[in-house]
């Protein structure tokens, strides 16, 4: 049993625990305030999903940025830093730059990290922290917490995640030569994250796009033996158009977070089939810590 396999399988319980953190919600931005949420890699994609959800539900203007490119000259009421390790250099530099100027909230996996003492309001999720380099549980648990803070009932998503873990993965999803992940609205960030999981763990060629933009060029690579995987309801005729290329269209019927769990399982199974270590992919570390000079 790898750490990744164990952490992946623990997600339904972790989501339930995160959704029940009612006291911690008080630290999140107030309704109607202007917010930016930042992260790197996986955390950036989760930030995209939260930003879309917060705006859709009328809670206020919300932007998501990769930490190194966040335009902090803009006027935000609160900046949320999302990071599993709390040690990522770009996040720490950004939060330090904002100290005394903008209220900052940290959603952090490691409660001993330096970010805990840098932000104005730390929210720690130690039960969701991980040992595998490849993130699964922390990212989705953070999003479960954030979805619940917006008034969502996560019971259906948690049930879907259990289904995603208990249902066999079709062979065509395990043997594809290429994957393209698509999503609309808040599911777009999760599509980007699914593509990253297969690249990280299994060194597979993956791409990801907002689904309505897929026809504007990327559909050119669809072909027999390749998979287009849509998270959430797909646009009209998309499945038909993909079928015409000879590729397979996998239209997700589960909550998009649960579809991500299915994609995580594909990444794990493909890594194991190729003799790769999914806990420690090549060229990757748990946190990117850059030289100070």
From TrEMBL:
Q: Which UniProt keywords apply?
A: Isomerase, Repeat
Q: Where in the numbering of this chain does the SIS domain appear?
A: 25-164
**Per its record, what are the GO molecular function terms?**
carbohydrate derivative binding; isomerase activity
Tell me which InterPro entries the record gives.
GlmS/AgaS_SIS, GlmS/FrlB_SIS, SIS_dom, SIS_dom_sf
The answer to keyword Transmembrane helix applying to this record is no
The molecule here is called Sugar isomerase
- What CDD domains does the annotation carry? SIS_GlmS_GlmD_1 (cd05008), SIS_GlmS_GlmD_2 (cd05009)
Task: Tell me the lineage of the source organism.
Answer: Bacteria, Bacillati, Actinomycetota, Actinomycetes, Micrococcales
Cite the SUPFAM superfamilies for this sequence. SIS domain (SSF53697)
Which Gene Ontology BP terms does the record give?
Answer: carbohydrate derivative metabolic process
Species of provenance = Candidatus Lumbricidiphila eiseniae
